[in-house]
Amino acid sequence: MNAKRSDKIATGVLYVISGIIVLILAALLLYILVRGIPHISWSFLTEPSKAYQEGGGIGIQLFNSIYLLIITMIISFPISLGAGIYLSEYAGKNWLTDVIRTSIEILSSLPSVVVGLFGFLVFVIQFQYGFSIISGALALTVFNLPLLTRTVEESLQAVHYTQREAGLALGLSRWETVLRVVVPEATPGILTGVILSSGRIFGEAAALIYTAGQSAPALDFTNWNPFSISSPIGIFRQAETLAVHIWKINTEGTMPDGVSVSAGASAVLIIAVLLFNFGARAIGKRLHRKMTSA
Question: Residues 208-247: pLDDT tens digits?
């Protein structure tokens, strides 16, 4: 009887703690959304920001965030996919594999500001890329690789070994088995990890302050030269992102309606991150159902 009572008490304490955490998180999200959603409009999402006047928007910062996310994923996904395949399918249990896994764990625990300072020293100064999209994307690649590599590896390891045996029994080579059997089977988990890491990148600020810059120059949508500083796809132009814009408004903002702009931008950022997370779960479940029913 005492054991059952102790179990019920312990379970109740865990439920209470979990409920408190959920309530705190929900209250924080609701506070940001309630303050920010009334300020969101089409003009707010599309118009450029203003420094000393009211009525500015977040159009350029929102575009920069999306574009920087695309560049970062183009760089980091192939590398993390290759690393995850190696660690899951080819790496043996030796000191080299242990060093690689330890390095991944260390990199995944680094604060983003440290990654930003590393990117500033290496990409901005040493490689002379300056404050630019490419510097920010490379810094975010360093920030994103450990999480994405581990996600790919875990998704591949979740595929049952009989799938690999079936591919080999059909006469496929080891690489063909990985490419045609294992990777397609692990696609739902990999895609979920990609979307979740995208949300993490989209909301990043500290690493970009030192690499992508803190200014949002006007974009010339008639110029599609990737090396032009006025082109929307120019990789060597400065690109203040939405998260950096929020930080800058709250630290050194000069616009009269800075509070409302910050509230609206924060709500947009929270909504985008929530969409990434819920979208990852929905897409992952849907793909998993298709894979199991096929």
Answer: 999 998 888 888 888 888 888 888 888 999 999 999 999 9
User: Of 248, 249, 269, whose CA–CA distance to 257 is shortest?
Assistant: 249
| DSSP annotation string for 139-201 | HHHHHHHHHHHHHHHHHHHTS-HHHHHHHHHTT--HHHHIIIIIHHHHHHHHHHHHHHHHHHH
Q: Most distant CA pair in the chain: distance in Å?
A: 77
Q: What is the pLDDT of residue 36?
A: 92
b/e code 18-49 from CB counts within 10 Å (16+ = b): eeeeeeeeeeeeeebbebbeebbeeebeeeeb
User: Residues 79-132: pLDDT tens digits?
Assistant: 999 999 999 888 878 888 888 888 888 888 888 889 999 999 999 999 999 999
Q: Which domains does the chain have, with CATH numbers?
A: 40-292 (1.10.3720.10)
Say what the pLDDT of residue 280 is.
78
Report the SS3 class of residue 230.
Answer: coil
This prediction has a pTM of 0.88
Q: Residue 130: which region, alpha, beta or left (left: phi > 0; alpha: psi -120 to 50)?
A: left
DSSP-derived letter for residue 64 is H
- Tell me how far apart the alpha carbons of residues 35 and 243 are, in angstroms, rounded to a whole number: 17
Assess contact for 256 and 53: CB atoms under 8 A.
yes
